[in-house]
Amino acid sequence: MTEKKAIHTVCMPHTVSSLVADFRELGIKEGMTLIVHTSLSSLGWVCGGAEAVIQALMEAVGEDGTLVMPAQSAGNSDPADWMAPPVPESWWPVIRENMPAFSCETTATRGMGAIAELFRRFPGVVRSHHPMYSFTAWGKNKEYVTEHQPLQAGFGETSPLAKIYELNGKILFIGVGHESNTSLHLSEHAKKNQVYVTKSAALMENGERVWKTYSEMDYDSECFEKIGYEFERMENYQTMKIGGAVCKLFDQRKVVEFGREWYAERF
Questions:
Q1: Cα Dmax for the chain
Q2: Which of the residues 22, 108, 142, 161 has the least number of beta carbons within 10 Å of its own beta carbon?
Q3: In this predicted structure, what is the pLDDT of residue 240?
């Protein structure tokens, strides 16, 4: 969305204080554990842009709450698997040899949006160490949420998603749909016939950069929109429009359990 179009999307500009009031009306409370999926452009014009949205979310949950965002870096992967876009096969060895090792401090997110990308660099924010499926967190339980994420099950039973589940967290959509709902990856572990694939990434081991190959569940978000549509037809959740963004607040446990039942029945 162009800035000109963003200006005409709203009657008055969003501010930190107006966004806090909106988030409170939606149902966000201090002390809440909240995983957020966002589209900055969907809101319309925001005074301060991504920074203002992050400040408002932090104020809404407070220091006794915990704010989490996905920080996936899918570019740190085997180029043989790249489809958007693919690269020539002759490039593959060069990329495997030279891809910078994952760094919590410097590795950029990919496809997560402006808010998630800025959030990872905010003071007080920590990041998990998975080279492709990391999460960032701020607040009371940030260390607990981000520690010990397993390489072979980045969205599994001891992942940040599982920690949010244990903390009875909520999911917030700001202008996005269930195609972005990473919590449903946790549900995928209920599949009876799980498929595992070989993955690779550049990371640090014992102080040295290595190209690490490992086996991981074949995560697939293709069904997420369908699962989310069925969930919203059957379960209660909170929704309101903030500027041009349709915003939704879900109980993460309900979403994950619904997804588990869906996958168990079909897989």
A1: 55
A2: 108
A3: 97
